[in-house]
Amino acid sequence: MWKFIGKLLRRKTLSQLSHEEFGRWAEQAAEKFLKKKKMKLICRNYRRSVGEIDLIMQDRDFVVFVEVKASRSEESNPETHVDRNKQKRLVKTAKSFLSEYKLYDVPARFDIVTIKMIDDNDIKIEYEENAFEAKL
Hints:
By secondary structure, this protein is α+β, with helices and mostly antiparallel strands.
């Protein structure tokens, strides 16, 4: 993982990245983390009028809709930003994806990957599988 971080940060440290750069970096780090768990990437940044899903992965027979939350502070809890309203948008967007690709009977779940910056050389990754229930 640290080689991956090093490649992303050749020019800047984590604290020097803009808000958008840090978000993109966090999504890349989450993707790499999930791939190490043997998941396969289906789609990045799936956007529709109803919302956006950061990563869509395959985990065995499951389609996994992943929300990535990142913070530059180890003390904060970015995962708390996945409130009921955010969950509703994620579910609507997931339904759009499943319908678009005619994946009507495929099991699906919603996971959250939280990335917290400890310092410029260290991060903490937390992973919550099946973070919330939803009817799809």
